Amino acid sequence: MKRITQTVFAFALFTAVSVSQTTSQATTPPPDQSSLGDYARKVHKDPAVKAKPKVYDNDNLPKDDKLSIVGDQPASGAGDSASADAGSKTANGKADDDQAKKQAEWKSWQEKLTAQKDSIDLASRELDVLQKEYQLRAAAMYADVGNRMRNAAQWDKEDADFKQKIADKQKAVDEGKQKLDDMQEEARKDGVPAAMREP
Q1: pLDDT value, residue 171
Q2: 70 — phi, psi (to 5°)?
Q3: Taking the alpha carbons of 123, 127, 129, 133 in that order, is the dihedral positive or negative?
Q4: In angstroms, rounded to a whole number, what is the distance separating the alpha carbons of residues 20 and 13?
Q5: Distance, CA of 33 to CA of 167 (rounded, Å)
Q6: Where are the domains of the chain?
Q7: Which residues are within 8 A (CB) of 193 and not within 5 positions of it... i.e. 6 or more apart?
Q8: Which residue in 112, 114, 130 sits closest to 170, CA to CA?
Q9: What is the pLDDT of residue 155?
Q10: What is the number of other CB atoms lying within 10 angstroms of the CB of residue 122?
Q11: d(CA 185, CA 111)
């Protein structure tokens, strides 16, 4: 019986200690922790907590204060930074000038290529007109056998002239196309973008 009494007493003591610890934990937070509600109230009341941290960029970077820089530190101070700024502006200005010159050269190439293509188109149209005119004259001449026999010498001369004109115009078209191909290749070597090389 003594043993049962000791066991019941130990159980009662354990239960009492556990309940008191649980109650104390539920009612009072540990001193080093605060509740989420307390933190939210503090943030809501204190405007300094809401202040955002200072963000630095090239415009508001401090010139006199020490900064953590990766690499070697320059020998002198503000004079070097001013000359570095001027140097970077000069480099940017030179890069802009170089880009503008490049764009002007590309535009010039584009205009030359367009002019050459227009010249080829004109020569091709003239060739088509000559060929159609020759076909009409030949059809008219061969349609009338009597006319062909009476004007055989004149027709032979006109026929030779037309064929020579057609051959010359075809040669001009071919040379123009070859010149355009050569110009496009030269423009490609000069760095002209493909979109500007194809007029």
Answers
A1: 93
A2: -85, 130
A3: positive
A4: 11
A5: 100
A6: 119-199
A7: 106
A8: 130
A9: 81
A10: 13
A11: 15
Which residues, at least 6 apart from 184, have a Cβ–Cβ distance to it below 8 Å?
113, 197, 198
Quick: pLDDT tens for 76-118: 554 555 555 555 556 677 788 888 888 888 888 889 889 999 9
Q: What pTM value is reported for the model?
A: 0.48
CB-count exposure of residue 187 (10 Å: 0-12, 13-18, 19+): buried
Q: Which helix (H) or strand (E) holds 13?
A: helix 2-27
Counted residue by residue, the chain has a size of 199
> Which residues are CB-neighbours of 177 under 8 A, at least 6 positions away?
120
Q: What ranges in 59-151 are assigned the alpha helix state H?
A: 78-143, 145-150
For residue 70, what pLDDT is reported?
A: 62
Percentage of the chain exceeding pLDDT 70: 63
pLDDT at 178 over 70: yes
